[in-house]
Automatic annotation (TrEMBL):
Top-rank taxon: Eukaryota
Gene3D superfamilies per UniProt: SET domain (2.170.270.10)
UniProt cross-references to Pfam families, sorted A to Z: SET
Location of region: Disordered: 69-102
Annotated ranges, domain SET: 3-40
Full protein name: SET domain-containing protein
SUPFAM superfamilies tied to this protein: SET domain
InterPro entries recorded: H3K4_H4K5_MeTrfase, SET_dom, SET_dom_sf
One GO cellular component term noted in the UniProt record for this chain: nucleus
Length: 102
């Protein structure tokens, strides 16, 4: 199984079938040419740092889809202050607007 790379989202798993037999079993459908990856650690661990601790003995840092940081969120535009809004430092009575009756 040394020919399989690691992923925290593996496409296959190793199953021990007898004293001298290993099976490589797909965890999901794969197309021809897809890389077959197994997990060298307990990939069910939710915490990235804990998974990385398990990989330290293998001498590498994982960069699979589960270990990559989430895409940067777009900055939300702040609404523009419209004319007629009083600054917060003015007393409340100065901010009141009276409706005219016509």
């Amino acid at each position: 199984m040394s020919a399989c790379n690691h992923s925290c989202d593996p496409s296959a798993e190793v199953v021990f079938a007898g004293s001298a037999k290993l099976l490589l079993v797909a965890r999901r459908a794969m197309a021809a040419g897809d890389e077959v990856c197994i997990s060298y650690i307990d990939h069910e661990e939710a915490d990235k740092e804990e998974r990385q601790k398990g990989l330290n003995s293998y001498g590498f840092c994982c960069d699979c889809c589960r270990c990559q940081p989430p895409p940067a969120q777009k900055k939300k535009k702040r609404p523009k202050v419209s004319a007629g809004v009083a600054p917060a430092e003015e007393p409340p009575q100065a901010r009141r607007v009276k409706a005219r009756r016509g």
